[in-house]
From TrEMBL:
SUPFAM superfamilies: P-loop containing nucleoside triphosphate hydrolases. A motif (Q motif) lies at residues 15-43. Its main location: nucleus. This is ATP-dependent RNA helicase DBP9. Residues 536-546 have a biased composition (Basic residues). It comes from Brettanomyces naardenensis.
Length: 557
């Protein structure tokens, strides 16, 4: 049994899962999951749902256990009701296929001792629609889907009935509400027996006014849970930013990664597809291996990459988050002010809800385009009560566009977005701290950065992108068969191979002694959290002990 550590701040230590009078099969599964106590949002949601039959709107921090908060009451109620035979009793809607799979996997674990009492169906599984319709007609108790896929299937077969539905869950509800799913939700409401027996859960870490119309449409007298603000000294997430120019972002990431200034697994976000490959190839020059995650890769590969990252097969994942969510007001994407679903990425989303495990640092190589997207990105670390840090590279407005090859359009607004991020974080009681790097001290690394940066041409990026897709399409097929035949062999399929023959110079891979900070030269094993002043001298903080270290502590002026 793997025990998952959850900090006191999220966990309701006075409460046990047994106190909810849950079915023994469910209790056994919860024990197997290693959950000792419910989290705060779970205690409240389970009670309100099972005892008071309330509709629930919950805003709770990223990583605070919202999935179990709605899954447990849904499964409990299905198990408790032995009279309703073979009916679709719950629909769980999420914005992306990744999340559908994640929720499906979690429900599978939760129902592992339930035999055939609870059947689950993930509608976003890439199976033929006809087969899907016939599987829905077998009336599994729980359907998991994106709104558009569900409506699609309902429109394909008018015999399917949802009037007996007891639970409707919309997870990441603000994204579902604002991301072009409103037509699908309107259509869906026509299939439901709203405000009768139906109990509704609307969940997210961020709620906005788009959710109000869903609240009016789907809920009656909902209980509103807001479980977000932690005490100052109990915050697990430490947030930093560095103001820089576009080319120096490449210098910074090289130095940070090469000298291992951040300990543990790092999730790097970039804002477009080519950018991800550019960074991967650039780092490859220095012998730094990374793995790519983006909307172009087949779903099987995406799921496998996240799974392997969670199992610590990779330490560095470069994820493209091209959602381009904007903060309200000044700019909206379409005439009605709603962001539209772009075809390729419409059902892909990596900053939302994906349960990355044990991420030490979220590094926003490119700053997201909205404060809301920032909340979700940085929420990939410091999950389930663990500590984590977020580091964002912010381009000075005056420096934007000065060096075309390293430039990206979104960075033009970085300073404005940073101001909004600071504002929203402040309202939640958080603070972003600036890091003043002494860029002069990194001058020794600059020529290597230049060399490596220049070697990554546009053609090399295009070539890498094509190769990776081809490779992953083949891997994806293999994965499909492997998943069926040989699940334990999956770990051997790696996604962090070199994707291009970019000239790889051994000189770039090694960092000569004279460039290293003194502390590292004296003791090569001591590479994390080192002071980066050539004179050395000051004592380092002990690594590993107390968690709330400032990981880049001595690197700034
Ligand atoms: N009671 C619990 N005890 C221990 N670990 C838990 C508990 N509940 C959930 N977890 C773990 O916490 C992690 C985060 O849970 P979950 O993915 O549900 O968070 P979330 O609130 O939905 O986050 P997000 O807003 O990012 O989607 C998961 O790995 C989950 O297994």
């Amino acid at each position: 049994m793997s025990k998952i550590e959850v900090s006191k701040d999220y966990v309701d230590e006075d409460v046990s899962f047994e106190s909810f009078h849950l079915d023994p099969r469910l209790i056994q599964a919860i024990n197997k999951l290693g959950f000792e106590h419910p989290t705060l949002v779970q205690t409240q949601a389970i009670r309100l749902s099972l005892e008071e039959k309330k509709d629930i709107i919950a805003r709770a921090s990223t990583g605070s256990g919202k999935t179990a908060a709605y899954c447990i009451p849904v499964i409990q109620s299905i198990l408790a009701d032995s009279f309703t035979d073979n009916q679709i009793q719950a629909v769980i809607l999420v914005p992306t296929k990744e999340l559908a799979q994640q929720v499906y996997d979690f429900l599978n674990e939760l129902t592992v001792y339930c035999g055939k009492a609870v059947k689950l169906l993930n509608l976003t599984d890439a199976i033929d629609d006809k087969l899907l319709v016939s599987l829905v007609n077998e009336r599994p108790e729980v359907l998991i889907s994106t709104p558009s896929k569900l409506v699609d299937i309902l429109e394909k077969d008018h015999e399917i009935s949802l009037t007996q539905l007891k639970y409707l869950v919309i997870d990441e509800v603000d994204l579902v509400a604002s991301y072009g799913y409103s037509d699908d939700l309107d259509k869906l409401s026509g299939y439901l027996n709203l405000k009768q027996e139906l109990q509704v859960f609307l969940m997210s870490a961020t709620l906005n006014e788009d959710v109000d119309s869903l609240k009016r449409k789907f809920c009656s007298k909902p209980a509103i849970l807001k479980l977000q603000d932690l005490e100052e000294d109990s915050k697990q997430l430490t947030q930093f930013y560095i103001r820089t120019n576009e080319l120096d972002k490449f210098l910074l990431i090289y130095v940070i990664l090469k000298l291992k200034l951040i300990k543990g697994k790092i999730l790097v976000f970039v804002n477009d597809l080519d950018r991800g490959y550019r960074l991967k190839l650039y780092l490859q020059n220095f012998g730094i291996r990374s793995c790519i995650l983006n909307s172009e890769l087949p779903l099987n590969s995406r799921l496998h990459i996240v799974d392997q990252f969670n199992k610590n097969v990779y330490n560095l994942l470069i994820a493209t988050d091209d959602s381009q969510e904007l903060d309200e007001e000044p700019e909206k994407n379409s005439k009605d002010g709603k962001a539209s679903k772009s075809s390729k990425s419409s059902e892909y989303g990596v900053s939302r809800g994906v349960d990355f495990r044990n991420v030490a640092c979220v590094l926003n190589f490119d700053l997201p385009t909205s404060s809301k997207a920032y909340v979700h990105r940085v929420g990939r670390t410091a999950r389930a009560g663990k500590y984590g840090m977020a580091l964002s590279l912010v381009v000075n407005e005056k420096d934007w566009g000065k060096h075309r090859p390293s430039s990206i359009a979104s960075a033009k607004r970085d300073e404005k977005v940073l101001a909004r991020i600071e504002n929203t974080q402040k309202k939640m009681g958080y603070e972003l701290k600036p890091y003043q790097f002494d860029m002069k001290q990194m001058d020794g690394f600059r020529y290597r950065m230049d060399d490596a940066f220049r070697s990554v041409t546009k053609a090399a990026v295009r070539d890498a992108r094509l190769r990776e897709i081809k490779m992953e399409l083949m891997t994806s097929e293999k994965l499909k068969r492997h998943f069926e035949e040989n699940p334990e062999d999956l770990a051997t399929l790696r996604h962090d191979k070199a994707v291009s023959k970019v000239r790889s110079d051994q000189n770039l891979k090694d960092v000569p002694d004279y460039l290293l900070p003194k502390a590292v030269r004296q003791d090569p094993k001591r590479v994390a959290f080192v002071p980066f002043n050539r004179g050395g001298g000051r004592k380092r903080r002990r690594v590993g002990g107390k968690k709330k270290l400032d990981p880049l502590k001595k690197f700034h002026r």
